[in-house]
Structure formats: C-alpha cells, structure tokens
Amino acid sequence: MPFPGCRSLKKHISKHRKNNLKKKRMEFWREYVVKNNVGREFVAGGFGGTAGIITSYPFDTLRVMQQQSGNASAIGILKNLLAKDGPTALYRGMAVPLASVGFQNAMIFQSYTIFTRICSPSNSSNGPPSLTNVALGGLGAGALQSILICPVELVKIRMQLQKNIDYFSKNKRITPMNLAKSIWKNEGIRGIYRGFGITVLRDAPAHAFYFGTYEYLREKLHPGCRENCQESVSTMFIAGGLAGISSWIFNYPTDVIKTRLQAQTSSSMKYKGILDCTLKIIKEEGSIVLWRGLGATIARAFVMSSAIFPVYQIALRCFTNN
Q1: Which of 45-54, 118-127, 137-146, 238-247 has the lowest mean pLDDT?
Q2: Which CA distances in Å does 182 have to 93, 147, 153, 195, 258?
Q3: Sequence-ordered list of residues with C-beta below 8 angstroms from that of 95, at least 6 positions apart, any chain
Q4: Short-list 28, 39, 120, 118, CA closest to 316
Q5: Is the distance from CB of 78 to CB of 126 less than 8 angstroms?
C-alpha cells in the first residue's frame, strides 16, 4: 500500500518536470532567434500577424460581404448580420486565416528582409536600405506569399459568404477543413488555387506600398529612427496604420475582382477570367462597384497594420536585447 501523499508527490514531480521541459524549450527558441538572423524576423512576424488578424477580422467579414452584395452599406450589412446570426457571425471563417496567419506573416517579414538585402548588397549590414530597395523587397515578398494566401483566402471567402451551396445543404456543421477537402475533391488543385493570378497582381504591388510607406512615415515622424531604431510605439502605430491604408487604396479594385472570382464554385461559373469579370461587373453594376466596401477595408487595414508593426518591432527588439 503506498504511503499517504504518494500520489500528490508524484503529481508534483511530474508538474516540476513539465515546467523544466517548458523552460528548456523557451530557452532553445530564444537562443535560436538571437543567434540566427533568419529566425528573428520570422518569429516576430508571426507574433505581429496573429495580433493583426484578431483585432481586424470583423472588418474583413464586412468587406467581403459588401463586395459581393448589391448596394448595401457596411452599416446595413452589420445590422442585418447581427440580427440574423449574432456577433459570432463576424468571426465566421476566422479559423482559416488564424491557423495560417502566423506562418504567413512570418514568411512575409522574413522574405521581405531577404529580398531587401538581395536588392541592396552594397549597403553595410548596419545601414538601412533605400526606400526603393524596401519597395522591391515588399514586391518580392508579396508575390511569394500569394502561394500560401490564395487557398486560405478562397476557403475564408466561401465560409464568409456560405457560397458552396451544394456542400452546405448536405452538412449542418461546416468547418474550414471540411470545406477545403470538398473543394479539393470536387475541383482539384485548380479549384483550390482559383484566383491565384489576381492574388499575385494584388499582393505584389500592395506589399511594395506597404513596406515602403511604413519606412517613409516612421522616418518622417521620428527622424533618424531608421538608423537608431528608437522610435516610440505611437510612431509604429501611426506609421503602420497609414501604411496599411495606402496599400489597400492602391489595390482595392483588384481585391474586389479577386473576391468575385474566388466566390465562384465549379457549378456556378459566371466569369471566365480577370478581364471578363472586370468588364461584366462594371457593365452590370457600374464602375463604383470596384470601390464598394472600401470604408470597411480602410478601417480594417488601419486596425490590422497598427497592431502588426508595433508587435513585430517590439518582439524583434526583445529577441535582440534592444
């Protein structure tokens, strides 16, 4: 017969071992990101992306629904959605980008850093790259991340719009994973990557504006900060938010077309391609359709980017003991 308290002692020892293992893992990752220049931007970008998606996702739902709707306003769509499905409807489909956004943003910031260094080999390792090279780095990062973001956004859009009618009618509970499997089964890789071309056309120039605007504004708001990295959190907040707005305003019509193309299913193909979609929606709804939902998008862009950049910069400085 075991001594009294033997079980509690075993639990205590087990808990102590788990805590030690957790500390060792944390020490390993901290050592990795401090010593490895590649790892810092990757991990910090993951933290920033997660913060951005959590704070801005309701605006994204309104943006997608407004792009696909008639002339309904964002306020009208919001009231109708809350009355019909409740506040949780604003977060419908968030599991898809949330599951991937950490890796996605980590990849964006890491690839941006790599492309920027490639574009400015003559710069010293301590000096900041020129704004032209920053924009080129953003261009390359945006094009590369389209490989990951295209399937993610396709599933997200279908979830937000509940567009896959045949599949939804057979299943009461729909999850992003089940929907992705259904698209793959019925449409193959061509279906899961529908809208890839327009995604590249949207994201490559958008990220050039994104990073270029951020670096320009942070220097204007806090002169010398690109050299010494001593800007305040408020500078990161404002520069990040305005950078997000500038990137979306420039590329918004492209995003509207992308939403229309990705909302199609194999059984309801209305548009043959990018040009056909553009001409048809302008003919049917007027050129104003290319800017529908811009208000919700600007609000989302500011909220998301004003969270991403401060979290990214603070995490990066923690890793480098700065």
Answers
A1: 118-127
A2: 15, 20, 15, 17, 21
A3: 175, 176
A4: 39
A5: no
Do residues 222 and 235 lie in contact, with contact meaning Cβ atoms separated by under 8 Å? Answer: yes
Q: State the burial class of residue 126 (Cβ atoms within 10 Å of its Cβ: 0-12, 13-18, 19+).
A: exposed
Instruction: Give the per-residue pLDDT at 143.
Output: 93
Instruction: List, for residues 125-148, the tens digit of each pLDDT value.
Output: 567 888 999 999 999 999 998 998
d(CA 314, CA 322): 9
Query: What is the spatial distance between Cα 123 and Cα 224, in angstroms, rounded to a whole number?
Result: 17
* Sole residue written with tokens 């790259």: 129
Q: Tell me the C-alpha to C-alpha distance, in Å, between residue 138 and each of 115, 153, 211, 230.
A: 8, 20, 6, 23
Show the tokens assigned to 79: 């009231």
| Residues 111/145, Cβ–Cβ less than 8 Å | yes
- To 5 degrees, how large is the angle CA 159–CA 199–CA 165? 25
Tokens (6 digits) for 55: 């704070």
Task: Look up residue 180 and give its two tokens.
Answer: 């992705």
CA 259 to chain centre: 15
Is the whole-model pTM more than 0.85? Answer: no
CA 288 from centroid of its chain's CA atoms: 26
Nearest to 93 by CA among 157, 23, 14, 46: 157
Proportion of the chain in helix, strand, coil states, percent, rounded to 5: 80, 0, 20
Task: Report residue 244 as tokens.
Answer: 């997000």
CB atoms within 10 A of CB 293: 26
- Asked whether 86 and 139 are in contact (CB, 8 A), the reply is no
Class of residue 80 by CB neighbours under 10 A (exposed 0-12, middle 13-18, buried 19+): middle
